[in-house]
Design goal:
The protein is mainly beta and 222 residues long. It has 4 helices and 15 strands.
């Protein structure tokens, strides 16, 4: 596989669907020709610069860790990056959580409250649609936690989605997670993901400490 002005990859498996089952164009609101899976990125360093709207793929042999970025260890399982963080619930309960880094999720934070007995809904929450995925609308609950600790960074009163996860995922050590960090939080940083060395580098934009607000319009505009 070859991307213009980028690296050639080793041969990769290609899945071609005869019908457009996913309707990605409708979900995203832009023409989508297909998906590139984690198997393509696993041997690269990826820079996601949200401010410049640019994705850069870097040969690891030419990568130098940026000195002015915050360095955090990650885990890579089945070609997906995971980050450990501290979730401080509003009642004072602190839970260490493994979170999938999901740049395609349009939420700041999602917690699977059946993944740990200490994770529970806050006293104030609403039931609603958390977003839209390939299978349609995602149902769950929306509330807040007191604080999310990522390394030495704190994010107070993060707007949090709560959703049970399928029990089969909880039994699979390679897929287990307590939730995910979504695009609304990740987009506050310039990010480098070093899959080979299991490291992430972050540099916050000025919008890092903006409050997390909920869209109350009830509309999805494409």
């Amino acid at each position: 596989m070859h991307l213009d002005s980028c690296l050639d990859s080793k041969p990769i498996d290609l899945l071609v669907l005869e019908e457009n089952y996913f309707n990605l164009d409708e979900i995203v609101g832009a023409p989508i020709a297909g998906l590139i899976g984690g198997g393509y990125f696993k041997n690269l360093v990826i820079n996601i610069d949200y401010k410049k709207r640019r994705l850069t793929l870097i040969d690891p042999s030419h990568f130098e860790a940026p000195a002015d970025f915050i360095n955090l260890p990650i885990k890579v399982k089945t070609n997906k990056p995971y980050l450990n963080a501290g979730a401080n619930l509003l009642d004072g309960t602190v839970v260490q959580v493994d979170l999938l880094l999901d740049t395609g999720a349009g939420v700041p934070l999602l917690l699977h409250n059946n993944s740990d007995t200490a994770l529970h809904l806050p006293s104030n929450y609403i039931r609603g649609k958390l977003g839209m995925g390939l299978g349609g609308y995602l149902e769950g609950f929306i509330g807040r936690i007191g604080n999310l600790s990522v390394g030495e960074m704190d994010f107070p009163f993060v707007l949090t989605s709560f959703q049970d996860i399928d029990e089969a995922w909880l039994q699979d050590r390679d897929r287990f997670r307590n939730g995910l960090l979504g695009n609304q939080l990740l987009s506050r940083f310039n990010i480098y993901l070093d899959y080979l060395n299991s490291q992430m580098y972050l540099k916050p934009y000025r919008a890092k400490q903006k409050p997390f607000n909920m869209d109350r319009s009830g509309m999805i505009v494409l």
